[in-house]
Amino acid sequence: MKQKDRSSLHVYQAVDTRYETMQYNRVGKSGLKFPAVSLGLWHNFGSKDCYDNMKAMCMTAFDHGITQFDLANNYGPVYGSAETNFGKIMEECFRPYLDEMLITTKAGYDMWNGPYGDGGSRKYLMASIDQSLKRMKLDYVDIFYHHRMDRETPLEETMQALADIVRAGKALYVGVSNYDREYTKKASEILKELHCPFIVNQRRYSMFDRQIEEDGVKAFCKQDGIGIIAFSPLAQGMLTDKYLNGIPADSRIARDDRFLHASDITAERIAKIRALDQIAKERGQTLAQMALSWVLKDDEVCSVLIGASKPSQILENISVAEQASFSEEELKRIDEICMK
């Protein structure tokens, strides 16, 4: 690193306590472990956001044992800007600590114009990994994911591309995201034949969204030795106290309503959130903490991906692994509230 950059480096002392409070869970049957809480760089890391705040969030996360930073080629907005910003943070803060970190990215959704910037083709995936590495100033990522099922492209082509990316030294492991049970099973079979280290499926999961239980992928992954990392464990912020008294001006709905809309915050939903908040208070947790603990309540999910808009939110949520157990009565009450 150039001398002029050293003043911004985060230098740790000989006695380093970063890893003492974080729990690390085995990823399926692989040799890798994920922190119970990982940081997703989806929202708040784009071209419209404050760079100093991004850097502060990443440093706060790493300072408290969050070793995994999860990105995708089209995170932003604009597309690619989250990776570009993370590349700057890597150079300024994290380069000496790269071997202590897990950095992951994905490709599968629309990224650039024309017929070759979307889906699961070999051409798209090969081009995307090269672009992602360049933006992040890395030689390889720890995990490269195919971001979504593409029923128009033969799965064999997509999986062969992932295997070749590993063989080329551009990724250590591969994963899939948003794959259902059928596609996960087929992907696993193909990648086993290709001797490619397929270790994780990234799926949406929360108290309000239990599709991975309903479609059987949660049970299959445990049986097949594939880890699960859950995204949107707070249901885009609904499983917090943020919307109990209206929609704040700095909320995700107010700033970026692409994925959560004001119409989603119904009186019925608010009543459920209030009831869940009461259970959380009885447990000595915030609602957000309980929601994360619930996702981690068994060994089928090895990590939860959190988003954040400020460092204090990260600090609030890192303790959840310590309270991941629930009584039968608590689980029954939660189910009654969420499923009615």
Structure commentary:
This protein has twelve helices and ten strands. The chain has 340 residues and is an alpha/beta fold. A hairpin with a 6-residue loop joins strand 1 and strand 2 (33-35). Helix 1 (51-63) packs parallel to helix 11 (311-317) and helix 9 (267-283) packs antiparallel against helix 12 (328-339). The protein starts with 23 loop residues before the first strand and ends with a helix. Residues 1-7 have low confidence and may be disordered.
Number of DSSP-assigned strands: 10
Rg, Cα atoms, Å: 20 Å
Q: In whole angstroms, how far apart are the ends? A: 56 Å
Strand content: 5-15%
Mean pLDDT: 91
List low-confidence stretches.
1-7
- Annotation field: number of helices: 12
Structural class comes to alpha/beta
| Major pleated sheet | 8 strands, parallel, barrel
Q: State the shape.
A: globular
Order of SSEs: EEEHEHEHEHEHEHHEHHHEHH
Question: Numbering strands along the chain, what is their spatial order in the largest sheet?
Answer: 3-4-5-6-7-8-9-10
Give the proportion of residues in helices: 25-40%
